[in-house]
């Protein structure tokens, strides 16, 4: 899924967290991130920096691709 807005990223994270049966508090403890930050990310009010995003993706078993805007092809994929 491509996302271009904070809201799209937040919805993806919230949906995956809920699918795994985790609360925001549980996810925040697993990632070492404040629960309020998880809430802000999921609501689209904040886009996490890479130091916060990578642990979230890891715990939710998601991967991230960096895509070349000119070719629209992946150039790098993170995976755990």
UniProtKB/TrEMBL annotation:
Domain HTH cro/C1-type: 13-67
Pfam families on file: HTH_3
InterPro entries, alphabetized: Cro/C1-type_HTH (IPR001387)
Protein name (record): Helix-turn-helix domain-containing protein
Organism: Psychrosphaera aquimarina
